[in-house]
């Protein structure tokens, strides 16, 4: 039986290329993507304990591999329920702190059904954080700070993303295939 990992990784890369970079939702993503400095780790679990173990192991991998700038922990078979995913994200952030990685790594969250707090589920702005699979994105805070320092108007990025997503509209995003 063929592993689904290459398919999951390819779809994730397509999403990064077409949405994250293509729509410029994250102006910092182009370099690590183009230079292949991203770890893509596929985890088939749907259990919090196993996912959190994989998450902390990814932190240790980054700690031991300075040339890997960032990591995406992708869950193609688990956490499809957005509330379950939010719970996993909260637990991951607590684990980050408990394991002494607070200030070293930051977690960004992406999910196929992402809905910002207080937002309507059909608001196109939710697509700024919608991905083909539930995933936790580990970012190195030191590299993030360097990128932020080089970028003018970093505080405007979320509002620009919301405006762009709303301008493109729901139909635009629903047509996208990864």
Characterise this structure:
The chain has 178 residues and is α+β, with helices and mostly antiparallel strands. It has one domain. It has seven helices and four strands, in the order ααβαβαββααα. It has helices spanning 5-21, 30-34, 48-64, 82-98, 141-150, 157-168, 170-175, and strands spanning 38-42, 70-74, 105-110, 135-140. It has a four-stranded mixed sheet with strand order 1-2-4-3, sandwiched between helices. Strand 1, helix 3 and strand 2 (70-74) form a beta-alpha-beta unit.
What's the structural blueprint in terms of helices and strands?
Layout: H1 5-21, H2 30-34, E1 38-42, H3 48-64, E2 70-74, H4 82-98, E3 105-110, E4 135-140, H5 141-150, H6 157-168, H7 170-175
Parallel strand pairs: 1-2
Antiparallel strand pairs: 2-4, 3-4
Helix pairs in contact: 3-4
């Amino acid at each position: 039986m063929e592993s689904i990992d290459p398919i999951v990784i390819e779809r994730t890369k397509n999403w990064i290329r077409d949405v994250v970079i293509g729509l410029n939702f994250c102006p910092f993503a182009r370099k690590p993507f183009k230079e292949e400095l991203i770890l893509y780790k596929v985890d088939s679990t749907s259990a919090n304990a196993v996912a959190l173990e994989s998450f902390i192991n990814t932190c240790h991998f980054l700690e031991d591999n300075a040339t890997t700038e960032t990591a995406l922990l992708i869950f193609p078979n688990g956490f499809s329920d957005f509330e379950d995913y939010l719970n996993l994200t909260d637990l991951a952030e607590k684990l980050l702190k408990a394991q002494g990685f607070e200030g070293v790594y930051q977690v960004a969250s992406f999910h196929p059904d992402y809905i910002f707090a207080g937002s309507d589920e059909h608001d196109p702005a939710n697509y700024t954080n919608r991905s083909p699979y539930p995933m936790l994105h580990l970012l190195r805070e030191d590299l993030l700070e360097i990128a932020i320092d080089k970028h003018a108007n970093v505080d405007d990025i979320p509002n620009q993303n919301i405006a762009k997503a709303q301008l493109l509209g729901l139909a635009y995003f629903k047509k996208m295939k990864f």
